[in-house]
Amino acid sequence: MRLIGLGVSPGIGIGKALLLKRGAPELRFRVPAAMVAREIERLNRARERSREQLQQIRARIAGSAGAEHAYMFDAQLLMLDDAMLIDRAAEIIRTQCLNAGSAVERAFGEIAALFDRADDAYLRERKGDVGDVVGRLCMNLRTARNSLDFFKNLEGPLVLVADELTPSTIAQLDWQCFAAFVTDAGSWTYHTAILARSMHVPAVAGLRDASHAIVPGMLLAVDGATGEVFVDPDPEVLEQVRARQQQRVEFEHSLDEYRRLPAVTEDGVRIRLDANVESPDDARRARESGAEGVGLFRSEFLLAGRGHEALGEDAQFEAYTRLVESMAPGRVTIRTFDVSEAQLPVGTPVPDGARAPLGLRGIRLSLALEDVFQAQLRALLRAASHGPLRIMFPFVSGVEELRAARAAVQRAAETLRARGEPVPPVPVGVMIEVPSAAVTADLLADDADFFSIGTNDLIQYCLAVDRTDDRVSNLYEPLHPAIVRTLRLVSRAARRRSIPVAVCGEMAADPIVLALLVGLGLTEFSMAPTAIPLAKQALRALRARDAETLAARALRARTAAEVEELLTAFISPRERKALKS
Ligand code: PEP
Ligand code: MG
Q1: Quick one: which of 6, 546, 557, 296 has its CA closest to 538?
Q2: pLDDT on residue 118
């Protein structure tokens, strides 16, 4: 069987399928007898964590809505001590050697069957409350720091098959035992795919129902460039896939020489290439790939799978300093947390109210959570004493937000000075990724020290196409005339106000598109480290003057297809051949 999805991270991976379903609270697997005690301890830790959270929620509700509304959390707290739930789950772990998540589910199944048989409608409804507690327990089992430890004991190579896969899950996996992953959902710019590319893990997304069609243990051969997934391939197909793997390795080696060469066009225009990284430990990989610095550190990855302590000033200071020191003298641009409320560590007090996807996110959430924001800003300002660092705000929609954020930087600086700590000057910039910011780029430029264009979000919001939804990924067109024009608008605004402007969205990593971006006057790019050697090769073969002519033509094109035609005709047959491999 051959499945076809979207190749979102090139490379070949061959291994046995391991399934991870969002619907199921956790992987179902048997724990070796020697690890039973550890599994029960995990269950107990999840119970304690759930207890703390429920107590916090109870107190908040009692304070805001009144004690009478808090009673249901008393009932949930009692359930955490109910022998039919926790003790029974522990017994299932002990006697059936099941992992904690499955054991809790199974115990819940038994309780639910009892409730279903009850005549009393009130009792039947209580099943929902127990389900709520079970959901919380399972969530805490999943997000506990060591919840993914079991992957370390699996025999690889494996291919992870998931319906959906969060970036925080893949950030925590031990990729020693995984050769690739494939998902039902997702597309090129969803964060899990971005992370896969920067970790060099082959991946295919948007397979729709792979997690149904594939049975655990099946052999899979994944081609992350073409989007093909061969299920239980016969020896001949396997041989062909292995030959592709060899070609890919050779192609990458052929780019090695570019790592050390400067990024400069054939006619001498100097281009700055930085790396997008998600962990302070990626700095080495960024340097080895030939990046000058880090153009985007997605600081929210520091929170992935961690508890509330990850929001602390000292923990962040240590992480930022590690990144800055390992990249010095290269410059590091750190973006403040770009998360929604739901992605904050469990237990972070967030303002009550609706939770829409375009609600409190990015800079809005930071401005709403003064303590969290101040701790991050203090950590950043302190780390700036250890090497060149710039602060960047995500999801800014206009001048007022930027001013409010800059005022917060001032407050953080004052706090540090009052503590007697030095505060070096730190450039403060904005991501241009919300259409209103792009349209008012000339106004923002007066208050910003630099711009970085986040094309991933800019495209999704300009074109009203969800970047994570594989069903509309054909409408997600980076070369849409609206995007080409918007890029020119921002590039011009920055140039007129003499502030640097970079592109840090995935668009910059496409060597064919780079010619267009250079032609639009953009000379700074940040991309996954793995994309840098190829980008250097493309830039060194490019004449900026020709790129300008290309951009002028692209600006007159009426459709994305017309722009694409212009770009394809522009690159030489030699480059086209190289890019196909
Ligand atoms: C972007 O939106 O282009 C970007 C770089 O940020 P992220 O992908 O993290 O949203
Ligand atoms: Mg973004």
Answers
A1: 546
A2: 75
Question: How would you classify residue 411: left for phi > 0, otherwise alpha for psi between -120 and 50, otherwise beta?
Answer: alpha
Q: What is the residue-wise DSSP string for 270-295?
A: B-EEEEEESSGGGHHHHHHHT-SSEE
Which residue(s) pair with 332 in the sheet? 294, 389
The amino acid at 125: E
Cβ atoms 511, 505 nearer than 8 A: no
Q: How far apart are CA 490 and CA 434, in angstroms?
A: 12
pLDDT of residue 175: 77
470: amino acid identity, one letter: D
Question: Quick check: 257 and 150 in contact, CB under 8 A?
Answer: no
Q: From the CA of 298, which ligand is nearest?
A: 1
The reported pTM is 0.76
Residue 477 near ligand 1, beta carbon < 6 Å: no
Ligand 1 lined by 454 (C-beta under 6 Å): yes
With a CB cutoff of 8 Å and minimum separation 6, the contacts of 546 are 515, 519, 570
Q: Is the CB of 298 under 6 A from ligand 1?
A: yes
Are the C-beta atoms of 214 and 162 separated by less than 8 Å? Answer: no
- The per-residue pLDDT for 122 is 65
Q: Please give all residues whose CB falls under 5 A of ion ligand 2, grouped by chain where several chains appear.
A: 433, 454, 457
Taking all residues of the chain, what is their mean pLDDT, rounded to a whole number?
A: 88
Q: Which atom of ligand 1 is nearest to the CA of 507?
A: 3
Residue 436: closest CA among 457, 450, 405: 457
Q: Quick check: CB of 166 below 6 Å from ligand 1?
A: no
pLDDT digits (tens, 9 = 90+) for 139-171: 788 765 444 555 555 677 899 999 888 776 776
Query: For residues 69 and 535, what is the distance between their CA atoms, to the nearest angstrom?
Result: 58
- Cα-to-centroid distance, 179 and ligand 2 (Å): 28
- Tens digit of pLDDT for each residue in 425-434? 999 999 999 9
Residue 150's pLDDT is what? 52
Which residues, 6 or more positions from 254, have their beta carbon under 8 angstroms from its beta carbon? none
- Residue 37 CA: distances (Å) to CA of 92, 100, 243, 318: 12, 11, 45, 34
Taking residues 492-509, what's their average pLDDT? 96
Residue of the CA atom closest to atom 4 of ligand 1: 454
CB atoms under 10 Å from CB of 224, counted, come to 29
CA dist., res. 320 & res. 230, Å (int): 41
User: Which spans in 311-451 are helix H?
Assistant: 313-327, 363-368, 370-383, 399-418, 435-439, 441-444
Which residues are marked as active site?
191, 504
Ligand 1 atom with the shortest distance to the CA of 453 = 3
Report CA Rg, the chain.
25
